[in-house]
Amino acid sequence: MALPDTLRKTMSLPLVAAPLFIISNPDLVIALCKAGVVGSFPALNARPAAELEKWLQRITRELAVYDEAHPDQPAAPFAVNQIVHDSNDRLQHDLDLCVKYKVPIVITSLGAKTFVNDAIHSYGGIVLHDIINNRFAKKAVEKGADGLIAVAAGAGGHAGTTSPFALVQEIREWFDGPLLLSGSIGNGDAVLAAQAMGADLAYMGSAFIATEEANAAQAYKQAIVDNSSEDIVYSSLFTGVHGNYLRPSIEAAGLDPDNLATGDAADMSFGSGGSNDSKAWKDIWGCGQGIGAVKDVLPAAQLVQRLRAEYQAARDRVLAA
What we know:
By secondary structure, the protein is α/β, with parallel strands linked by helices. The chain has helices spanning about 5-10, 25-35, 50-70, 90-100, 115-120, 135-140, 165-170, 190-195, 220-225, 245-250, 275-285, 300-320; strands at about 15, 40, 80-85, 105-110, 125-130, 145-150, 180, 200-205, 230-235, 245.
């Protein structure tokens, strides 16, 4: 299960920070990459569309300067998330910019299309596709994805319902390429556990909401700290695709978390700035079940330092057993 050099050589922890819609920004991405984990952001976070080039210019420039000053410990690569769904009318524009700036890693979601993979491969980039079941995993690899992100039960955002044990085991029966695991990963122990199950890297999102650099309201960050797995609600109402959300934010919107209607996937409006974008990602707060491990709002680098210490302590315990 060899990782490409792009992912292997510069990471201080086997971890990719998941792209967080609205929340991930250049400040967070740059801080994470300098700390030795892959930082990422959805292309649609850069609004209007022309803003994406400014973001890519800044990230590539600042990381290049950092690498020149730290040749023995360069920054980890960054990633851009592309929503490969018919509702995303920016896809070709954003993809062209990824090619122009030779984005090292592209994370694709909500659809697998060969032309996207071919464009990224044209300059040597890596495509990681997120999936919620084994059937989708096989389709993604058939269409040219280099690696898979198994979004298991308990993950934030558009999560699946399959146990991480089952999902990783099924994928590893036929796929020996890069495999990332998402789902309730909130500390360094969970990062090591993901590797023990057969994943190469852990994929963590919710914990990074509670960082100083994240573009989230302070109340949202504090809610990540104050709540736990029992406060997570799984619903399709807000985007048409099932996802995990914080119960207090649903209640604050005047809705009953225990009696939510079913959403329609045909109503998704990524990239259009429609009502679903606002309802699902600003007023209703998404996160996964791993938030019980989050105790403070910290600078991103300090959080990575904590995760690294937890990961090493977990390794030491296993070796001593």
